[in-house]
Write a structure and sequence with these properties.
The structure holds two protein chains of two kinds.
Chain A lengths: L7 H23 L11 H25 L8 H23 L7 H34 L4 H22 L3 H10 L7 H6 L5 E5 L6 E5 L4 H13 L3 H36 L1 H24 L2
Antiparallel strand pairs in A: 1-2
Chain B lengths: L4 E7 L3 H13 L3 E4 L7 H4 L6 E2 L17 E2 H15 L3 E2 L4 E6 L4 E5 L4 E9 L6 E2 L12 E2 L12 E5 L3 H11 L3 E5 L10 H12 L3 E4 L2 E8 L8 E7 L2 E7 L1 E4 L3 E2 L2 H6 L26 E3 L9 H15 L9 H9 L7 H11 L1 H4 L3 H9 L2 E3 L6 E3 L8 E6 L2 E5 L5 E5 L4 E2 L1 H6 L6 E4 L4 E5 L1 H10 L1 H19 L6 H10 L1 E5 L4 E3 L7 E7 L1 E8 L2 E9 L3 E2 L1 H6 L6 E4 L3 E7 H10 L1 H23 L1 H12 L8 E5 L8 H9 L13 E2 L2 E2 L21 E3 L5 E3 L8 H5 L6 E4 L6 E4 L12 H4 L6 E4 L1 H11 L2
Parallel strand pairs in B: 1-2, 1-8, 2-5, 8-19, 10-17, 11-12, 11-17, 12-13
Antiparallel strand pairs in B: 3-4, 6-7, 7-8, 9-18, 14-15, 15-16, 20-27, 21-26, 22-25, 22-27, 23-24, 23-26, 28-35, 29-34, 30-33, 30-35, 31-32, 31-34, 36-38, 36-43, 37-38, 39-40, 41-42
Helix pairs in contact in B: 1-3, 1-7, 4-5, 13-14, 14-15, 17-18
Classes of the chains: A mainly alpha, B alpha+beta.
């Protein structure tokens, strides 16, 4: 409905970035330096200067994003420019290097810049892909609303389990207490469900916590109890409890999915931002080294 | 002399009553101050601990024998207490006046607890809060029964019964349920007349078992539980199924307050109208229609502490027969200086009332208060007073000279108004932008009054309401259909036109009905819907300032669509014959209306082909966008949840974000966050004691720094977008809300800070366009 950051102002920054990259390519092709193309020719210095300016401009996005009262363009325009100019940077800096790579700080700066751009491409892809999924998964509810709903379901399920008596209250309480949301960063990103449940042990006297992904183990057990029941009223109650557990399962899955999407929307920045800092350091080293050891 | 007889009896020890008593004591006048509760300034005593009390309005000097300046509740109360003792005020606590009778000389005040006091003069200073309704059952005096809840966090692990089904009862019950077992008792079988949010909250809490509820139940008695019981008290209920007994620790009865008006009327004091907002008729010396009976403070229409204290001082002077100038006299002198009339303040005020027929009906005291809030102007000839499409909503009366109103866009026509006339009532009543431009003529003297002051007048004086209504109808017809017709030509049509009120959701007309009237929407907005394949599909939304129903009238057919009010809506309706006469007057008008009909038909056809669009329009209407002038929406297909919008808002607004991105409903990718909609007729403005909520010329509704932190606006906003927060570090809590970054260049920070373009702001004009784009 609203235009995405890629098509901002009829692709204004795609045109700017393409023109910049194209100009660099043409200049490089026409340039006939006495030695093989490298950063030391007049074109090499020019491209190097442009690339360094681009890096600073791209890094300045982080400052502009937080300068909330700034009237210097909109953050959206800046991001659109950030994406396209970042792609152009790869072209400009590679031509600046004249395709000469080695085990040195100069190539390190190039590698880091490529890493920043690559993580940025991944981030852009996430930004385009995930919001719609997140919105559909939430189905108009906020996380707080979902958690409140979960608490309500827990209360109703506990009530129903208490009415059934026997092993039901303990089983339901263990399923509730061991329902996992979150966990390690890896578990969240993978969307893994580490829920467990303690069922009355098959072995005499023992109970053990069993994996209960998507509440499946609990539902199996309830299904088993349902099949065993011969009392009409009791069957109805177990059935009702199963319905509650099923609703609860859906809710837990949605909460987990929500956390997963949010985690991915953030995760790429853990590469992008540190790599940018390292790039700035490497770039500074590259510039100093070039001018000191000319 | 009789010890129960006094020269002055003052009823109510609020700021006004305290000040009157202190002044009487200082002058050595025999007096008694009667207070129903057991402490002075009962309302302020009930403020939460440490609450900041403000001294508004700052321009008004304090004239009292008690000290008062802004400070914490404790400081204010302690200083008053010390002042009372120093002055030697004769105060009687626990003395609630039940009835006042006139006697041969003076009055007899019967006290509820028995006994009576007689006095030559009575000063009423009882405020507007009214007395809390109490349980009247056996055991209601047990210590477990309370009528207030100061801090719900004080209680833990108790069984608490909340009696009542209003907003206060629900809010208390829900807050207490976090740490206690709560049961709510409702006299009827539903929660009627409560805020929507509270209704949802309580029903959900009851459904999920967090709060227990007894419907159709009345409190029969409160008893002590037998020794050894788990809970010390028992509440006995009479329910539809017989008696129920609830073992409990505490009973909180929130069963409303008895408004003071009935009591005041029972004393013989006349009110000018039945409206609950109406104020008693008073003279310039605060004397009511009963000679010797005076009314000061909030009950007389002066809700601020300083005003009430000044009046307390003045009323004693007046009773003693002294001629003092009111404390606001120098303010008027300054205000009127530029008029160069060479008249005294009182004569200038009298001249205004004499020259402007609309103001003749107002009593001098009320007019003085009205003028204190108003401005006088002497604009140069040709100067613009306001422009078409400005968002201002003040009201103007012409004292001298002439004003020209330019109506219409394409072929503007200038209407001349002379002295005694008024203008600006269109925006005043609709909350919409100015529909015309006003220019000053030669020798022009104007009174400009803020919307709130005028609404107060309209509500208390039927004559003023009628006068302004009639004028509005004429101007509305001129603007929409007959720019070049004079007031006289339209007077007959206006007399036949009707002003209609519609509640939210009410049907204005139904598809298939015979078309016999045209509705000009004066305030609010309407949704147009059609029955397509057995389903009602909203096809359009029409804002105030436009009209509906023309389609049926033009073709003399049946209604092609159903029109409903989205929000509380007022329309002016014209009969078919009058509309025909207007069309006959002006051939261009017929073409204009025909063009509108064509446009609307095309729109309807387009939307009927895309039923989802209609659903989105209805969703947005349910979210109150029907009364919005500018609303923040979020395209969830783009929102990455970074909350940069909130961060930008907080960072540009003293650290408190005025929007909550995540909260609020979503439909078809469109998310309506909790954020101000800048309503056409803002609910928050309804009851702001210092008049701190204003509308800027561009439409932004904002709260000025003179907010006293009372929280009325927070409660009145149906969208929950106002919060109480400190504006500066360690400062008092005041109301804060979105001001659309009116003081920042570059527009709203939330939208400018959105990295993906998900955050957008739209007004009524852009709404249908946006909805059409959701499809893509």
């Amino acid at each position: 409905m609203q235009e995405s950051l890629l098509v901002y102002r009829r692709l204004r920054y795609l045109w700017v970035a393409s023109a910049l990259a194209a100009a660099a390519v043409v200049a490089y092709a026409l340039h006939r330096p006495p030695e093989p193309p490298n950063g030391g020719t007049w074109l090499g210095y020019t491209l190097g200067g442009i690339a360094a300016a681009l890096v600073l401009l791209l890094a300045a996005f982080g400052i502009r994003k937080r300068a909330y009262a700034s009237t210097l363009g909109s953050v959206r325009g800046w991001l659109s420019a950030h994406v396209y100019l970042g792609l152009a940077l790869v072209v400009v800096m590679t031509l600046h290097a004249g395709f000469q790579f080695g085990w040195n700080v100069h190539t390190l700066a190039w590698v880091l810049a490529c890493l920043v751009v690559a993580s940025g491409i991944v981030g852009t892809w996430f930004y385009l892909r995930y919001p719609g999924q997140m919105s559909r998964n939430r189905a108009g509810e906020t996380r707080e609303q979902m958690l409140a709903e979960l608490a309500d379901l827990d209360r109703l399920a506990a009530k129903q389990a208490a009415a059934l008596g026997g092993e039901f209250p303990d089983v339901m309480m263990s399923a509730r207490d061991r329902s996992a949301l979150g966990g390690s960063a890896f578990a969240i990103l993978a969307g893994r469900d580490q829920s467990r449940v303690v069922l009355p042990g098959a072995h005499a006297g023992g109970s053990q916590a069993l994996p209960n992904p998507s509440q499946s183990r609990l539902l199996d057990w309830l299904g088993h109890e349902l099949a065993e029941s011969t009392d009409g009223e009791r069957t109805r109650q177990i059935h009702e409890l199963m319905t509650l557990v099923n609703t609860r399962r859906g809710l837990l899955d949605r909460l987990r999915r929500d956390a997963q999407i949010r985690a991915w929307l953030d995760a790429w920045l853990y590469v992008h931002v540190p790599a940018t800092t390292m790039l700035l350091a490497a770039l500074a080293a590259h510039v100093i080294v070039v001018f000191l050891y000319w | 002399m009789d010890p129960g007889h006094h020269r002055i009896a003052i009823v109510g020890a609020g700021p006004g009553g305290l000040s009157a008593a202190a002044h009487a004591a200082r002058l050595g006048v025999d007096h008694v101050l009667l207070e129903a509760s057991d402490a002075h300034a009962h309302t302020i005593q009930r403020y939460q601990k440490g609450k900041h009390v403000m001294a508004e309005p700052p321009v008004l000097p304090l004239r009292a024998d008690l000290p008062f300046e802004a400070g914490t509740r404790e400081t204010v109360l302690t200083r008053w207490q010390a002042g009372l003792e120093a002055a030697g005020v004769n105060i009687r606590y626990g003395a609630e006046v039940g009835a006042i009778e006139r006697q041969a000389s003076g009055f007899r005040l019967a006290l509820k607890g028995g006994g009576a006091v007689t006095a030559e003069h009575v000063v009423f200073a009882i405020g507007m809060q009214g007395n809390l309704r109490r349980l009247e059952v056996p055991g209601a005096d047990l210590p477990c029964v309370q009528y207030q809840l100061d801090d719900p966090d004080e209680y833990r692990g108790e069984v608490i019964v909340v009696v009542g089904a209003g907003d206060a009862a629900i809010e208390n019950a829900v807050a207490l349920a976090a740490q206690n077992e709560v049961v709510i008792v409702n006299r009827i079988d539903e929660f009627a007349r409560v805020k929507d949010g509270n209704l949802k909250l309580i029903l959900k809490s009851i459904e999920s078992g967090r709060i227990g509820c007894y419907y159709r139940s009345n409190v029969a008695a409160v008893e002590r539980a037998p020794a050894g019981s788990a809970r010390p008290f028992v509440l006995v209920l009479a329910t539809a199924d017989g008696e129920a007994r609830i073992a409990c620790d505490r009973i909180i009865a929130r069963i409303g307050a008895i408004p003071p008006r009935r009591f005041v009327e029972s004393c013989g004091i006349a009110f000018p109208g039945p409206d609950p907002m109406a104020l008693p008729s008073l003279t310039a010396r605060y004397e009511s229609s009963v000679p010797g009976l005076y009314v000061i403070g909030a009950l007389g229409g002066y809700p601020l502490i300083k005003q009430a204290m000044n009046q307390g001082w003045e009323v004693v002077e007046y009773i003693l027969g002294r001629d003092v100038r009111p404390a606001d006299h120098p303010l008027f002198e300054e205000k009127f200086a530029k008029l160069r009339f060479g008249l005294t303040v009182d004569d200038t005020l009298a001249r205004f009332q004499e020259r402007i027929p609309l103001y003749r009906e107002i009593n001098p005291l009320q007019f003085r208060e009205f003028m204190l809030g108003s401005q006088v102007h002497r604009p140069e000839a040709g100067a613009v007073i306001f422009r078409r499409n400005d968002y201002t909503d003040t009201f103007f009366a012409i004292v001298d000279g002439e004003v020209e109103i330019e109506i219409g866009e394409e072929n503007p026509y200038r209407l001349r108004l002379g002295a005694g006339n008024f203008f600006g009532e269109m925006s005043l009543l609709s909350g919409r932008r100015r529909s015309a431009t006003a220019y000053a003529g030669g020798g022009c003297v104007l009174v400009e009054s803020p919307r709130r002051e005028v609404l107060k007048l309209i509500n208390s004086l039927e004559a003023v309401r009628h006068h302004i209504d009639r004028h509005f109808v004429i101007r509305a017809i001129q603007t929409a259909f007959a720019p070049n017709a004079s007031d006289e030509e339209l007077a007959a049509v206006a007399e036949r036109a009707k002003v209609n009120d519609f509640k939210p959701g009410a049907v204005i007309f139904t598809e298939g009905d015979e078309a016999d009237t045209l509705h000009l929407i004066r305030s609010g907005s309407v949704a147009v819907s059609r029955n397509i394949g057995g389903r009602e599909i909203v096809t359009s939304y029409v804002a105030a300032g436009n009209y509906v129903g023309e389609m049926g009238l033009m073709g003399r057919t049946r209604r092609a669509a159903t029109v409903r009010a989205n929000v509380a809506t007022e329309t002016v309706s014209l009969g078919a014959a009058d509309f025909d006469a207007l069309l006959a007057r002006n051939p261009e008008l017929r073409q204009k209306v025909q063009a509108l009909v064509r446009r609307r038909l095309a729109e309807n056809a387009r939307i009927a082909a895309q039923p989802q669009t209609g659903d989105i329009v209805s969703f947005l209407m349910q979210q109150g966008i029907g009364e919005a002038t500018d609303v923040l929406l979020i395209d969830e297909g783009l929102c990455i949840g970074c909350d940069n919008c909130e961060k930008a808002c907080a960072s540009t607004h003293d650290g408190t974000s005025r929007l909550n991105r995540e909260a609020g409903p979503t439909y078809a990718r469109l998310h309506v966050p909790t954020s101000c909609r800048h309503c056409e007729d803002p609910h928050c403005m309804t009851d702001c004691p210092p008049d701190a909520i204003r509308r800027a010329p561009n439409g932004e509704v904002y709260i000025r720094d003179n907010c006293i932190g009372c929280g009325n606006c927070e409660r009145n906003c149906p969208y929950g977008v106002i919060q109480m927060a400190a504006r500066e570090e360690a400062g008092p809590k005041k109301a804060v809300k979105c001001d659309m970054c009116k003081d920042l260049s570059g527009g709203p920070a939330c939208v400018r800070a959105c990295p993906t373009g998900a955050a957008i702001r739209v007004g009524p004009e852009g709404l249908l366009d946006l909805v059409a784009r959701v499809e893509r």
